[in-house]
Specification:
alpha+beta, 7 helices, three-stranded antiparallel sheet, 2 domains
Length: 242
């Protein structure tokens, strides 16, 4: 198991823009959990599509994304039509990355509740919010993700980054909610309908496990579920949303 693997550890020959869209959360070794062989990865995504659209799973879509699995790494062949902010995120990412590197020590400081509103990070985000909400939301998510990751590397405690930047709850989080087990057909009813609508064989999909995504990152999915189709060598990611 590895928390916060790199883009290069998750994707085979990743495109530059992958780091703007995909946020690696957790890698698990299937053999250690008696689920087969090889590595699989939980990945959060930045999107702005309609979670009710039943798009072809080859497209980038809020709650159903497919990756090809090759040599323990993912290959993404989907389209990005569902992300209406895609044209902006390269600029947003590079700006946030530069700011984080220049202010990392300050942004990683734990804040008391009454200090949050006057922190440099909060003031920076407020300026973005006045410009555009998606710009603010994307940047806040990036900072939160980086803080969560870097504080874990520093303390070996898995505590969501909001504890340090927003004075939210500081309890340690669950790394994963469930690994393996039987599929709850009521819980995954919509996912199974998507498979049928796309002429997928649902019986060939092995349930690998679930994590709570907001334990790792402030924006994104409530929970991420992984399924493996060994014959097709495909990983299917299904996300729950509030």
């Amino acid at each position: 198991m590895k928390l916060f693997p790199t883009i290069e550890e998750v994707f085979k020959e990743p495109e530059e823009y992958y780091k703007y869209l995909f946020f690696p959360l957790l890698t698990i070794d299937l053999k250690k959990h008696n689920l087969g062989n090889g590595l699989v990865h939980f990945v959060s995504v930045w999107g702005n599509g309609d979670p009710d659209d039943e798009l072809d799973p080859g497209n980038f879509e809020y709650n159903y994304i497919k990756f090809n699995l090759e040599e323990n790494k993912y290959i993404f062949n989907g389209k990005l039509d569902g992300i209406v902010t895609f044209k902006n995120i390269e600029e947003w990412y590079k700006e946030a990355d530069k700011e984080y590197q220049e202010n990392k020590t300050d942004y990683l400081k734990q804040r008391e509740y009454n200090q949050v509103s006057e922190s440099n990070l909060n003031k920076s985000l407020e300026k973005r919010q006045k410009v555009d909400f998606e710009y603010y939301n994307y940047s806040k998510g990036l900072f939160n993700y980086w803080i969560t990751r870097d504080k874990y590397l520093e303390t070996e405690k898995f505590i969501q980054g909001g504890f340090y930047s927003d004075a939210n709850s500081g309890h340690e989080r669950k790394i994963f909610e469930q690994i393996g087990g039987e599929i709850d057909y009521d819980e995954f009813e919509y996912f199974l309908e998507l498979l049928e609508n796309n002429e997928e064989n649902k019986e060939a999909k092995q349930f690998l496990g679930s994590i709570t995504a907001y334990n790792y990152i402030s924006f994104g999915e409530d929970r991420i579920h992984l399924f493996l189709d060994s014959e097709k060598k495909e990983i299917l990611t299904y996300a729950d949303w509030s």
